[in-house]
Design a protein that fits this description.
Helix content is 30%, strand content 20%. It is globular and about 55 Å long. A hairpin with a 4-residue loop joins β2 (23-26) and β3. The chain has helices at residues 10-18, 40-50, 65-71, 76-85, 116-125, 144-151, 190-196, 261-277, 294-306, and strands at 5-7, 23-26, 31-36, 59-61, 72-73, 90-96, 107-111, 128-130, 157-159, 171-174, 181-184, 225-229, 242-245, 254-257, 282-286. The strands form two sheets. Strands 1, 2, 3, 4, 5, 6, 7, 8, 9, 10 and 11 form an eleven-stranded mixed sheet that branches. By secondary structure, it is an alpha/beta fold.
């Protein structure tokens, strides 16, 4: 067990990163657990803390596009599109230029999170390699109290700031190939990205090379059995079940009623975590509404339900 410092001091958090420590920090999407991208030993500690497969790569978090150009080969044709999308909840896979931790891949994932405090933290810390802050295979964490409960005594520093607002991980686009591929849907929708990248395609079902987190291994799943439903008629008669969805008439042991897909995203992982905390054995999740955010939300739900 290590002594975990908890503070709002982002400069102190950056100093811990530079000295080889592990820091948990909030982004606009979910909490991240990070180390210096230049420190392989520190990055490998994250795998141990999370019990994460070591061929599952991290996203490198930076404060500006200038670091994109320093760390990776950035095609001129993509620079303007990237600049128009950052800072924000989107990551880009690019061919690696500089030697940073990358699980042996010739590519790296880069993103610029939004928010002044996180930007300042990254400016002082330098590039930070960070997956989501959760135990491997379990739901990402979006609440500060859950972070304290899960990681206090396991990491060197927890940066206390406002909790993530979006609730699911960033969109990931692979720009190292032509045509570019949407590896992971997120808040920024496929239909919107098609305007920026007209030749953008969806991935094939078989992914041979793991360039992005959460494209191969089990993710998002709570311990309880999940079922994706289109009607409340599909709910069994058991008394102690969980429910997240749009039907306010549901009265059960644990329910989260949402009005929009965006609200659904924000509450999804905390719902999963609470189901496990309350010992719920079975939970039901409404099918998302038909809008631009449906793809990302359905991606997380289907992976959670299937356990893949």
């Amino acid at each position: 067990m290590v002594k975990t410092e908890i503070s709002e001091d982002y400069k102190r958090a950056a100093d811990v990163i530079r000295k080889g420590g592990i820091v948990i920090f909030p982004t606009e999407t979910v909490y991240g657990i990070g180390a210096s991208s230049y420190n392989e030993e520190a990055c490998k500690k994250i795998y141990k803390i999370k019990s994460r497969p070591q061929d599952n790569p991290f996203i490198i978090h930076v404060h500006s596009i200038s670091e994109f150009e320093d760390l990776a080969f950035l095609e001129l044709e993509y620079k303007n599109q990237i600049q128009s999308l950052i800072p924000g909840p989107i990551s880009f896979i690019l061919k690696k230029k500089k030697e940073v931790f990358s699980t042996g891949l010739p590519t790296i994932g880069l993103r610029v999170p939004s928010g002044n405090i996180i930007s300042d933290f990254l400016k002082f810390a330098g590039p930070v390699s960070a997956p989501s802050a959760n135990l491997s295979g379990k739901p990402s964490i979006t609440r500060f109290n859950d972070i304290i409960e899960e990681f206090s005594g396991k990491v060197d520093f927890i940066l206390k700031f406002k909790e993530p607002e979006i609730g699911i991980e960033s969109t990931v686009i692979d720009l190292s190939v032509n045509p570019p591929i949407l590896l992971r849907p997120g808040k920024i929708s496929f239909s919107f990205l098609k305007i920026k990248f007209p030749n953008l395609i969806l991935p094939s079902k078989e992914i041979n090379e793991i360039k992005s987190p959460r494209v191969k291994y089990k993710h998002y799943s709570p311990d309880c059995k999940l079922q994706l439903i289109k009607s409340i008629k599909e709910i069994s008669t058991i008394k102690k079940y969980g429910y997240i969805g749009f039907d306010s008439s549901i009265k059960t042991f644990h329910s989260v009623i949402v009005k929009t897909n965006e609200d659904y995203m924000k509450n999804l992982y905390s719902f999963f975590i609470d189901c496990d905390k309350k010992g719920i054995k079975e939970a039901y999740c409404d099918y998302p509404k038909d809008d631009d955010s449906k793809m990302a939300l359905l991606n997380r739900l289907e992976k959670a339900v299937s356990g893949k």
